[in-house]
Amino acid sequence: MTQTTTEPRPPSTPAQRARGLLQPGWIAVILLAVLFAGACWAILAPWQFHRNTERQERNNAITSAVTTPAVPVTDLLSTTVEPDASVAWKLVTATGTFSPDDQVFVRLRQLNGRPAFEVLVPLVLSDGTRLLVDRGYVSAGVATAGLDLPPLPTGVVTITGRTQQEQPYPTPREPVQNEGRTEVYGISTDTLRSDAGGPVLHGFVQLVEGSPGVLQEIGVPQLDSGPYLSYAYQWITFGGVALAAIGFFVYREITDPPEDEDGEVGYSDEPARKPRTRGFDRSELFDKASPYD
Questions:
Q1: The whole model's pTM is what?
Q2: If you write DSSP's letter for every residue of the chain in order, what string do you get?
Q3: Closest residue by Cα to residue 188 from 198, 207, 201
Q4: pLDDT tens digits for 39-59?
Q5: How many other CB atoms sit within 10 Å of the CB of residue 53?
Q6: Comparing 15-24, 181-190, 219-228, which segment has the lowest mean pLDDT?
Q7: Does residue 215 register a pLDDT over 90?
Q8: What are the boundaries of each domain within the chain?
């Protein structure tokens, strides 16, 4: 029996396998993992932390507003400057007479998930200054059916409500007339008739339950922290997992040589072993010999 030998190929060194990582495929995968982790840590997680901070500030502002005693509306709203976000939900009082002829309906609102309107009406204060008052919600079914709303009180009244910044529609839209109603798209002092005369307080007041003229109160938002803090930690984790995964595969590539680097000594009466590779061998899908041949 004649012995034949096959010289084994010397195994590659870790340094040689490390140089293999300079191939375009490896560079692209490593770069993608690093960019993803960078985006998670420098953009996505900080963005969620920022949103969480904004939500906490809003919650703190609402908590402070609802626990603060009511003050005269002119302490917070002015005829010269727009109010800032700090006035939101603060309780105020105002004394004057309603102007029912200038009442308008705000479109594109929802009440318990159903279409609704908000109803705006001016309140003329004793010095002639006008204040935009939000009476609250009325369902779209009631409004479109032509049913009469609860009438506004006549004479001088003192209202109680919560101040808000104006909420103009993103693009200017003219009021529309619909079945006798004047409908607008945003809440702005521009909805007050310019020919009515007198200065106008910037911002508006949402009536609270029990106040003269209120319909269905627009409640204070729920104090919910939201999922933002959890999302931020998730993005941090995703970035770490991406780097850990690519680090593991790089380590395996350097320290674990392919199986086809192992040389063997065979004999002439033994079939030579087919070199093994890490890849998928498509020839294994087919039988080399069929029993029906």
A1: 0.67
A2: ------PPPPPPPHHHHHHGGGSHHHHHHHHHHHHHHHHIIIIIHHHHHHHHHHHHHHHHHHHHHHHSPPEEGGGT--SSS---GGGTT-EEEEEEEE-GGG-EEEEEEEETTEEEEEEEEEEEETTS-EEEEEEEEEEHHHHHTTPPPPPPPPS-EEEEEEEE--B--SS----EEETTEEEESSB-GGGS-GGG-S-B-SSEEEEPTTSTT-SB--PPPP----SHHHHHHHHHHHHHHHHHHHHHHHHHHHHS--GGG------TTSPPPPPP-SS--GGGGS-SS-TT-
A3: 201
A4: 999 999 999 999 999 999 888
A5: 12
A6: 15-24
A7: yes
A8: 10-69+223-259, 90-207
What is the distance between the alpha carbons of residues 258 and 222, in angstroms, rounded to a whole number?
A: 60
pLDDT score of 89: 92
Over its C-alpha atoms, the chain yields an Rg (Å, rounded) of 37
Candidate from 36-45, 51-60, 185-194, 275-284 with smallest mean pLDDT: 275-284
Question: Parallel, antiparallel, or unpaired for β 204-207 and 181-184?
Answer: unpaired
Instruction: Of 101, 63, 94, 96, give the one whose Cα is nearest residue 77.
Output: 94
